[in-house]
């Protein structure tokens, strides 16, 4: 999960492993999750993620590896009227 306004970005261990990303450092974090009263203290790997934008310019991010970024999200169907609005205004989801 990349958030340009955050002081830390995350990648799931599963995705980091699939991309064969190697840890370059580690960081001990105190993690507070939604619905939990007790924070978890855990040492997490730090890895480098490189991505390219639509113009082909590379961008490098230092990301923290964690077990799970978020649970699966439910997707909703878009009604025909909303689809037309998106198309008419050249918007993409």
Automatic annotation (TrEMBL):
Residues 2-74 form the DUF1758 domain. InterPro entries: DUF1758, Peptidase_aspartic_dom_sf. It comes from the Eukaryota. This is DUF1758 domain-containing protein. The lineage of its organism: Eukaryota, Metazoa, Ecdysozoa, Nematoda, Chromadorea.
């Amino acid at each position: 999960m990349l958030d340009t306004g955050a002081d830390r970005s995350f990648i799931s261990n599963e995705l980091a492993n699939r991309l064969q990303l190697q840890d370059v450092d580690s960081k001990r974090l105190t993690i507070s999750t939604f619905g939990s009263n007790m924070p978890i203290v855990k040492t997490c790997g730090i890895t480098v993620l490189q991505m390219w934008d639509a113009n082909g310019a590379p961008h490098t991010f230092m990301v923290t590896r964690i077990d799970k970024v978020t649970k699966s999200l439910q997707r909703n169907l878009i009604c025909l009227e909303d689809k037309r609005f998106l198309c008419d205004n050249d918007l993409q989801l």
